[in-house]
Structures are given as C-alpha cells and as structure tokens.
Amino acid sequence: MDFRLTPRQVQLKADARALTDFIAGYENQCEEENGLPADAHAKVRDAVLDAGLQAVNMPAEWGGAGLTIAEQVTVQEELGRLTGALWDMVWRPANALRFCTPEQRERFLVPVIKGERRDCYAVTERGAGSDPQNLTTTATRNDRGWVLNGEKWFVTVGDHADFMIVLAAAGPDRAPTLFLVDKDTPGIEMTRVPRFMHTFVYEHPEFTFTDVQVGEDAVLGGIGEGYDITRSWFTEERLMIAARTIGAAERALELSRDWAVEREQFGAPISSYQLIQGMLADCAVDIAVNRAYTHQVAWEIDHSSAEDRKTLHAKAAIAKLSASEASGRVIDRCLQIHGGRGYDRAYAVERLYRELRVDRIWEGTSEIQRLIIANELIKRGSGVLDLPVA
Ligand SMILES: Cc1cc2nc3c(=O)[nH]c(=O)nc-3n(C[C@H](O)[C@H](O)[C@H](O)COP(=O)(O)OP(=O)(O)OC[C@H]3O[C@@H](n4cnc5c(N)ncnc54)[C@H](O)[C@@H]3O)c2cc1C
C-alpha cells in the first residue's frame, strides 16, 4: 500500500493553494457585497487559467487540466478552504457535458473549458427534489425540435451562466432527457433569486420555461438518458464535495488552533484548558479519517472497471455523507472555540459555519446518501466496506 501523494499531486496541491490564497483576497468583499463585480470575476478567471486549473475534470485534448480523480480531490481540498463559495469560480464543467456530440462540444463545452461560457444544471423543481421522478417540466416535439415548459428551482450559477442543462420529461413517454438551452432563448424567465443562509459568489435562482423552442440538436446524450447521465455525474460530484468540506474543516481547525493558543482567559491561553483541547482533538480526528477515506475512494475510481460502478457510487455516498457531517461537527466546535468572534461575519469560521450546512443537502441529502448505502448493503452485501485488492 502506498498512501503518499504523487509528485504531481504535491505540485497540484501547491498550485491550488497559491490560487486559493489569491482568490481569498476577495472573501471579505464577496461577503460584504453578496457577490463580486465583473472586474474581480475577470481577474480570478485569468488567475485560474494562469494556474492551469481550469476544467480539472475535462481531458487536456479539449483544453481541460485533465486530472485524475485523485488529483482532482487534491485540488478541491485546497479550494474548499475558500469562503463565499469562491471555489466555484474555479470552473469545473458539469461532467454531463462529456456526453456532447462533437458539434455540441464546440458550441458549449470547449468555451466553458476556456472560461468563455458557463453552464448550470437545472434538475430540481418545486415538487421534485430528492425524488426527481416527480418532474413536471415537459419537452414536446414539434417540427423544429422540442418545446420546453415548466419551472426549475435552486439553479446554482443560474445568474451567471449563459446556458443551462435542463432535465425534462420528453414526449408522450415522459422520457427523462437533458437539453442544452441557451439562457437567452425566448420564454426563459428568472422569476426569483432567493437569499440563502450562506453567502455564495453566484446565486441559485428559480426559472420558468414557457414554450421555449430548442432544436433537435439540443438533446444531450439521448432521449431517456437524463437520469443515467445525471447519476453518473453524482459519484464524482459527491466525492468532490467530500474533498472540499475536508479542506474547509482543516482551515477552520488551523484558525481555531491558532486562536486557542493566542487567546488568554483566566490568566492562561484557552488552549491550556482540556475542554478546548478535546474540541481540537475531535476536529483533528474528523478531518484525518475523512481525508483518508476520500482519497481511498478517489484512487479506487481511478483504478476501477465498469462492474465496480455501483459499489463506487455507494462509496462516494459514504464519503459525502461522512465528510459533510464531520465538517459540520468541526465547524461547530471551531466557532465555539472562537467565542463571540466566531459569530462575527468578518471571521472565516462564521462564514464556513453557514456555508458547510448545504453540503448535507445538495447533490442528495444525508438521508438519500444513507438510502444509497443501505441499498448497496442489502443488494450486494458488505463488499462496500472492502479495501481494493491489487
Ligand atoms: C443552495 C442550493 C443549491 C442547489 N443547487 C442546485 C442546482 O444547481 N441544480 C439542481 O438541480 N438542484 C440544486 N439544488 C437542489 C438540491 O439538490 C435539493 O434541495 C436536494 O436534492 C433536496 O431536495 P428538496 O430541497 O426538494 O428536499 P426534499 O426532497 O423535499 O426533502 C426534504 C427532507 O425529506 C428528506 N427525504 C426525502 N425523501 C426521503 C426518503 N425517501 N427517506 C428519508 N428522508 C427523505 C430529505 O432528506 C430532507 O431532509 C440546490 C439546493 C440548494 C439548497
């Protein structure tokens, strides 16, 4: 067994940390202004391209950084340190875009990889959250292609993106299908931009689609493949959430350790009190254990065959569930160690406290991850617990 980072991972970690440190310069502005102005977006975009960390999940031949899953985890851990979800400025196109035809790739994916366009993924609806089968958005065929009608909620980056990947029930069979839709297509309206608990550099708006005409060539993948494509995206996406929450938790622990050593009460540093030491130790345990497992699963995905797919889906669910819940515990303790300052938005721990909460909700709630894990145990036994064998 070799648990060491490869020389390439060491380099990527350093590059990602340098980029993270640069982007962190915008954290306070993002918090105060609930977003960033266009010039800040342009500077970060240039920095991402200079670092070569654009589209880390896309092949180098298309202009992406072409990283393995283990390498992506290394990068996402560093980016996860950022507050204001500034990690999302380091764009990683939806993996679903790998299903583009060559023409779609030139029109949509390649410009996203270059940082010239931006995608967003619209699956959730008012009545279709954990259960996307409840979908009411429809796609009806006509002589010019497809006509979309319906609504989508919580569309992350929906304000900034210029095209959407929309899940709709297509045709009389209600076949779940993804469509590539330019956001300025007539009939698309951004109806509400809710204010959420976290400060996020982009918004998560709601959209309505009224007789939105798209061409036959707007179908991504194939008719009826919408769930399968979305699901195949979840395994990697959930692992990246695990990685980012671990990075966030590590930053919070570093800040809290430093604060505990520096802050004196009752005539001594608070780090000398065992109740504080217990919290620091519990944070270290939560981070160390989850980091190791997340890297294990990343390695397994990189070395997997097609028949491992279902078990790896469950392993990614374990990683997401465990890391997001552990980081929630970590940030709660870290806020406590900071005392009243931990409640001040000028402190990173306060922002992380609000921001880490959603990781237990999006890309499948903690309850849904538990269902996936239990389902795997019931169907295929406890192999999900096994270490990979050489
Ligand atoms: C900030 C933010 C950004 C988002 N970005 C996107 C995006 O870009 N694109 C997109 O499509 N969606 C996005 N989402 C939507 C997100 O994926 C959903 O919120 C999530 O899947 C849960 O769906 P829901 O909110 O409808 O909750 P519901 O599904 O209504 O769940 C409510 C509660 O019931 C529980 N529950 C549901 N079913 C079961 C069950 N079978 N057993 C046990 N418990 C159950 C849930 O775990 C939860 O606790 C985003 C959400 C948020 C908050």
Describe this structure in words.
The protein has helices at residues 7-24, 27-33, 38-51, 69-79, 102-113, 226-262, 274-302, 309-337, 348-355, 366-380; strands at residues 119-122, 138-142, 145-152, 163-170, 175-182, 188-192, 206-214, 219-220, 264-265, 268-269. 46% of the residues lie in helices and 14% in strands. α1 packs antiparallel against α3. The chain folds into three domains: 7-92, Butyryl-Coa Dehydrogenase, subunit A, domain 1 (Orthogonal Bundle); 119-220, Butyryl-CoA Dehydrogenase, subunit A, domain 2; 226-385, Butyryl-CoA Dehydrogenase, subunit A, domain 3 (Up-down Bundle), CATH 1.20.140.10. The chain is of the alpha+beta class and 390 residues long. The strands form two sheets. Strands 1, 2, 3, 4, 5, 6, 7 and 8 form an eight-stranded mixed β-sheet that branches. Strands 9-10 form a two-stranded antiparallel sheet. The site of flavin-adenine dinucleotide (FAD) has 18 residues, from β1 and α10.
Helix content: 40-55%
N-to-C span? 9 Å
CATH class of the largest domain, named: Mainly Alpha
Integer average pLDDT: 97
Main pleated-sheet profile:
8 strands, mixed
Low-confidence stretches: none
Small ligands present: flavin-adenine dinucleotide
The Rg value, from CA coordinates, equals 21 Å
The helix tally amounts to: 10
CATH H-level superfamily of the largest domain: Butyryl-CoA Dehydrogenase, subunit A, domain 3
H/E element sequence:
HHHHHEEEEEEEEHEEHHHH
Decide which structural class fits the backbone: alpha+beta
Number of strands: 10
Overall CATH architecture of the largest domain: Up-down Bundle
CATH fold type of the largest domain: Butyryl-CoA Dehydrogenase, subunit A, domain 3
